[in-house]
Design brief:
The protein contains 3 helices and no strands. The longest helix has 31 residues, at 2-32. α1 (2-32) packs antiparallel against α2 (36-62) and α2 (36-62) packs antiparallel against α3. The radius of gyration is 19 Å and the shape is elongated. The chain is mostly helical.
Length: 111
Protein backbone atom coordinates (compact mmCIF):
# COMPACT_ATOMS: atom_id res chain seq x y z
CA UNK A 1 0.00 0.00 0.00
CA UNK A 2 2.90 2.33 0.70
CA UNK A 3 4.20 1.96 -2.88
CA UNK A 4 0.84 3.21 -4.23
CA UNK A 5 1.18 6.38 -2.14
CA UNK A 6 4.69 6.93 -3.49
CA UNK A 7 3.50 6.41 -7.08
CA UNK A 8 0.56 8.79 -6.52
CA UNK A 9 2.94 11.39 -5.05
CA UNK A 10 5.38 11.12 -7.95
CA UNK A 11 2.64 11.31 -10.61
CA UNK A 12 0.95 14.27 -8.87
CA UNK A 13 4.25 16.08 -8.47
CA UNK A 14 5.04 15.39 -12.14
CA UNK A 15 1.80 17.08 -13.22
CA UNK A 16 2.49 20.07 -10.99
CA UNK A 17 6.04 20.41 -12.36
CA UNK A 18 4.70 20.23 -15.94
CA UNK A 19 2.18 22.95 -15.10
CA UNK A 20 4.84 25.20 -13.60
CA UNK A 21 7.11 24.63 -16.64
CA UNK A 22 4.23 25.67 -18.88
CA UNK A 23 3.73 28.81 -16.79
CA UNK A 24 7.43 29.68 -17.13
CA UNK A 25 7.26 29.10 -20.90
CA UNK A 26 4.18 31.33 -21.06
CA UNK A 27 5.95 34.09 -19.16
CA UNK A 28 8.96 33.95 -21.49
CA UNK A 29 6.68 33.96 -24.54
CA UNK A 30 4.72 36.97 -23.33
CA UNK A 31 7.91 39.01 -23.03
CA UNK A 32 9.44 37.63 -26.26
CA UNK A 33 6.61 38.25 -28.72
CA UNK A 34 5.95 41.78 -29.93
CA UNK A 35 2.50 41.46 -31.49
CA UNK A 36 -0.51 41.47 -29.18
CA UNK A 37 -2.28 38.49 -30.77
CA UNK A 38 0.83 36.32 -30.42
CA UNK A 39 1.15 37.33 -26.79
CA UNK A 40 -2.50 36.59 -26.21
CA UNK A 41 -2.20 33.14 -27.77
CA UNK A 42 0.76 32.26 -25.55
CA UNK A 43 -1.04 33.58 -22.47
CA UNK A 44 -4.24 31.70 -23.25
CA UNK A 45 -2.51 28.39 -23.88
CA UNK A 46 -0.29 28.76 -20.84
CA UNK A 47 -3.16 29.65 -18.55
CA UNK A 48 -5.45 26.90 -19.76
CA UNK A 49 -2.92 24.07 -19.90
CA UNK A 50 -0.63 25.20 -17.08
CA UNK A 51 -3.40 25.66 -14.58
CA UNK A 52 -5.15 22.48 -15.71
CA UNK A 53 -2.02 20.40 -15.27
CA UNK A 54 -1.31 21.94 -11.88
CA UNK A 55 -4.86 21.29 -10.70
CA UNK A 56 -4.76 17.71 -11.98
CA UNK A 57 -1.57 17.25 -9.96
CA UNK A 58 -3.22 18.58 -6.81
CA UNK A 59 -6.27 16.36 -7.44
CA UNK A 60 -3.99 13.33 -7.60
CA UNK A 61 -2.10 14.41 -4.47
CA UNK A 62 -5.22 15.12 -2.41
CA UNK A 63 -6.98 11.92 -3.42
CA UNK A 64 -10.43 11.64 -4.90
CA UNK A 65 -12.86 13.47 -2.60
CA UNK A 66 -15.24 16.44 -2.67
CA UNK A 67 -12.35 18.90 -2.95
CA UNK A 68 -11.16 17.05 -6.04
CA UNK A 69 -14.60 17.46 -7.54
CA UNK A 70 -14.44 21.21 -6.96
CA UNK A 71 -10.99 21.42 -8.53
CA UNK A 72 -12.29 19.43 -11.50
CA UNK A 73 -15.12 21.93 -11.90
CA UNK A 74 -12.57 24.76 -11.87
CA UNK A 75 -10.72 23.01 -14.72
CA UNK A 76 -13.96 22.71 -16.70
CA UNK A 77 -14.75 26.39 -16.10
CA UNK A 78 -11.27 27.43 -17.25
CA UNK A 79 -11.54 25.28 -20.38
CA UNK A 80 -14.82 26.99 -21.24
CA UNK A 81 -14.11 30.58 -20.18
CA UNK A 82 -10.52 31.16 -21.28
CA UNK A 83 -10.98 30.51 -25.03
CA UNK A 84 -14.11 32.69 -25.09
CA UNK A 85 -12.30 35.56 -23.40
CA UNK A 86 -9.30 35.19 -25.72
CA UNK A 87 -11.58 35.19 -28.76
CA UNK A 88 -13.32 38.39 -27.64
CA UNK A 89 -10.01 40.15 -27.01
CA UNK A 90 -8.71 39.03 -30.42
CA UNK A 91 -11.84 40.34 -32.15
CA UNK A 92 -11.44 43.65 -30.37
CA UNK A 93 -7.83 43.91 -31.54
CA UNK A 94 -8.68 43.01 -35.14
CA UNK A 95 -11.57 45.48 -35.35
CA UNK A 96 -9.77 48.41 -33.70
CA UNK A 97 -6.17 48.17 -34.94
CA UNK A 98 -6.07 50.02 -38.26
CA UNK A 99 -2.44 49.04 -38.89
CA UNK A 100 -3.39 45.39 -39.49
CA UNK A 101 -3.72 44.15 -43.04
CA UNK A 102 -6.84 42.22 -41.98
CA UNK A 103 -8.45 45.30 -40.42
CA UNK A 104 -12.25 44.99 -40.35
CA UNK A 105 -14.35 48.09 -40.20
CA UNK A 106 -17.25 48.08 -37.81
CA UNK A 107 -20.71 48.42 -39.41
CA UNK A 108 -21.06 51.97 -38.02
CA UNK A 109 -17.78 53.03 -39.74
CA UNK A 110 -18.75 51.84 -43.24
CA UNK A 111 -21.10 54.77 -43.98
Amino acid sequence: MEILNVIRFVVGLGFIILGVCLFVTEMIGIFKFKYVLNRMHVAGMGDTMGLSLSLIGTIILSGFNFTSLKMGLVIVFLWLASPVASHLIARLEVTTNEELENYCKLPEEEE
